[in-house]
Specification:
about 675 residues; alpha/beta; Rossmann fold; 4 domains; seven-stranded parallel β-sheet; disordered N terminus
Amino acid sequence: MPIGAISKSTRLIFEQGKRLLLPSSLPSCSRSSMASCNPVTELSARQILNDVDNFVFDCDGVLWDGLTAIDGSSETLKRLKNLGKKVYYITNNSTNTRKKYKEKCEKLMGIPVTEDEVLCTAYAAALYLHNKKHKGKVYVVGNRAMGEELDQVGINHTGIGPDVVGDKSMLTDFAKTELDPEVNCVLVGFDPDLSLNKMVKGASYARQEGSLFLATNEDSHLPLRSNVTIPGTGSIVAAVKVPARREPIVIGKPNPTIFNVLKEAHGLDPSRTMMVGDRCNTDIALAKNCGLHSLLVLSGVMKQEDVDRDKISADPEITRNLPDHVANCLGDFGKHIPESSLPRESFCMLRSYHNKSSAVRTDDILESMACTKMDVKVAEEIMESTDNFVFDCFGVLWKGEAAVPGSVETIALLKSRGKKVFYLTNNSNDTRQYYVNTCHRYGFNANEDEVLCTAYLHSRKFTDKVYVIGNPGMAEELDRFGIRHTGLGPDIVGDQRRLEDFIPTELDPEIGCVLVGFDPNISFTKMVKGASYARRPDVLFLATNEDTHLPLDTEDVVVPGTGCIVASIKVPARRDPIVIGKPEAAIFNVLKEAHNLDPARTMMVGDTPSTDILLAKNSGLKSLLVLSGITTQTDMEALVTSSDPVTRRLIPDFYAENLGALGQCIQQLGEEN
């Protein structure tokens, strides 16, 4: 597209080059105020007008609510413009192009607006990629507006639109997902067509070495006045970044990137610019990051009680983002603005990674950090001090279609020595009977009393009707206990394209609990309902587990775990669930009470430090980590060399290449005796 055919701001941005948008080039602004959270009065309004030439407005929750203008917002903008003030509009909303926002501003505010005055994250993300001279294809978890803005700057992209799960019924079906070798960037924005297929692809591409990972914003929910909670882009970003185990570069607020577009295009002086918004963690944080004045209005996401709580917070990041001024709505500021110009007056105002260049042997490092490798002496200690063995399944006993080498023999050997064996999994897809059958298929002689899965555990707790984001295995266990439930199966978006389309979502007044497990049919409609129910303080919010990804044996494809689905609900609900599965002690306590187990004489054997080993720590058990599943030798090395006390708590007592190593050492021990 010829440079002469595009807008003034775009032309200036192109001329400035990529320095404008690269995070490393952003200035560190630290404008401070002698006082914070001052209510807007006639005096303070005149001071603002004296000190500020440029006003930058967030839109949703500040100027309008859905399709309705907020009282006083239009008149305030008109008065500011009459005084010669420059007015701009910045939004984290990625669902519309600048042209659409221009049209909405003109319709609801009743004033003329140019595209140069509007900046949305779909446009800013496209500019970011253009100025980086991005070559390759972008996988977009997003919407049509994002695609249009990418098209405008000639960026090749794929992924927009529905990508349904179809007849995929097994977890291993997702591991066969075909990836496009041309994709080297993932861009996540608001996507009403979010599906597990998109999570798989987005996480897989983002996980690839050298790939670029971008997000338009991380807003937790939309500022709509409704009893329905509409998840924001942050919930969708969480569904991708959790399994990718990587943070994205955020284009929108509070990153200075988006303000710098306006600053460079219009020659704005930050010290004479005010950001007006309804969120402290995005709008006001942007002001702090860019050295702007700030005004928080309470007509959107934040209310007075939120401000009062933040003012006494012990978290310096929260208190840093307190606004200079607060008003109930924009009209409360506007009523103090005269209709003609004023004379200028003066007013008094977690993981630390091991250095790979080190010549120290990994085994030496592990031994020095009290994490002992399996050998005959260790096996002897374990056999003498342990009566009960609790095993994770996938990655420990089997992987794919085969048992892990030596695992069947080791389990049989332990049982022959009089040890009790139990099987404990965070997988909520299947019932206990299914797991018994699976154990038998791989060669393990298990019975139902020895098996505990999260689908069985949660069904011991409930009396109310449950909204289930999950799978048939969870439903079967609920049915066994006569617990009413709803939500299972597909709940497609249909022709709902606009954010406002989700407000009429019907909610069931009988719901007393939200239960989240692995759900191959996850959709935006389910996210809306789950977050809306979980937002209610009287509703129980449970999750079977928060595993980030599944330990499927594939080099390229990442299959998201239940943790990404949980994240997509808890982010907009702004509430953490009670986690039923590992690493919480509740799941072990079921075994403990049913079989009278002594924790001091029980060992947890698993392949994941953050669930299996942490369960052992939380329950007072011994722990053995096997490297046949998720955790690698390199991961172990990073774990034991970390200085973070939270990370160091994940270090196991013992580790082995696989379960067969324990069995071999036990056999050698018997031969020596």
